[in-house]
Amino acid sequence: MKITKGIHHITAIVGEPQENVDFYAGVLGLRLIKKTVNFDDPGTYHLYFGDEQGKPGTIMTFFNWVGAYQGEIGSGQVGVTQFVVPKNSFGFWKTRLKTYEVDFTEKKRFNEEYLQFSDPHGLKLELVEREEGEKSSWSFNGVTPDFAIKGFGGATLLSAEPEQTVQLLSEMMGLQVIGEDNGWIRLKAQGPIGNIIDVNTHVVRKGQLGVGTVHHIAWRATDDQDQLDWQKLLKDQGYAVTPVQDRNYFNAIYFREHGELLFEIATDPPGFTHDEELQDLGSQLMLPPQYEPHRAKIERVLLPFQVREDKL
Questions:
Q1: Residue of 244, 221, 226 whose CA lies nearest to 8
Q2: Confidence (pLDDT) at 312
Q3: Which UniProt key words apply to this protein (predicted)?
Q4: What is the pLDDT of residue 225?
Q5: Distance of CA 192 to the CA centre of its chain
Q6: Three-state SS for 242?
């Protein structure tokens, strides 16, 4: 067994970049920490949102597939992505969601209350109040640290083989099974945020990748050596693991677990300030060295957008 502290980031597929930015920055108050391109498809954005620094456990990222088909959420995918907010902040968030005409429902699992809603492109999200995790230091568009999203609360997983997914998480990745409730198994990692994973014990219809679905969920590795140790362990257990991929802000390996979810293990370093100053994060299009000679062509293809104080 090895141990991960929990979620490093979650990457989803969405549509128009302006709608994406208006919602996650303008409504939810997250910071756009990196504006770059999909390294495997440089004609599309890869946008990163998080806390002020983009610390692991706070990073929600998006591939903007403008005009693509709508996906279907189902087995082999993250079902719902949860963000954690401070205790006693639901009143603020209920009012804010109503103000921005975001429909929400109140849910309950494991004696916790959730506000569940969808983003403009159909991605399912939840807010949960917890004491754990330090408050965000980022303020934007009326969202102050007293109410701001701290990072991930966790995620619900829809597995094609729930028992095997739970076994992987608990016996190889160091999460602890802490409860069962109405068809869900709850596991907890050691980190203070991005640490609660609920696995649906019922198998639902297979998901279809597209707009409004999660592409992959990434788990934290301490550093490059820790990641290589993960890679060896997974290979030894029969998983098909990719070579290390340089994603500029972290290194990544990928594998598909037996429940058909795409898992990534990403390094905590180097982070997002090695190519931009902290105060400038997300302000310019940042390209990896291999695409810099093609900047003019890439910029002509990408749709312009602004981070706006109010959703217009």
A1: 221
A2: 44
A3: Dioxygenase, Oxidoreductase
A4: 98
A5: 16
A6: coil
Answer whether the bond into residue 288 is a cis peptide, omega within 30°: no
Pairing of strands 213-221, 245-246: unpaired
Q: What is the pLDDT of residue 310?
A: 84
Shortest CA distance to 27 belongs to which of 36, 18, 38? 18
According to DSSP, the residues that pair with 58 across neighbouring strands are none
CA angle 105, 107, 110 (to 5 degrees): 170
CA distance 215 to 209: 7
CA-to-CA separations, 264 to 53, 215, 242, 250, in angstroms, rounded: 21, 10, 10, 11
Rounded Cα–Cα distance for residues 207 and 79 (Å): 9
CA distances from 42 to 37, 289, 301, 308 (A): 5, 12, 9, 25
Distance CA 299, CA 287 (A): 11
Distance CA 195, CA 57 (A): 9
Report the C-alpha gap between 92 and 42 in whole angstroms.
Answer: 38
Give me the domains of the chain, ranges plus CATH numbers.
7-301 (3.10.180.10)
Spatial CA neighbour of 286 closest among 231, 247, 233, 244:
247
Residues of the chain below pLDDT 50: 312
Whether residue 162 has a cis bond before it, omega within 30° of 0: no
- Pick from 195, 39, 253: nearest CA to 48: 39
Q: Partners of 220 in the beta sheet?
A: 266
Give the pairing type, strands 196-200 and 151-158: parallel
C-alpha to C-alpha distance for 164 and 166, rounded to whole angstroms:
5
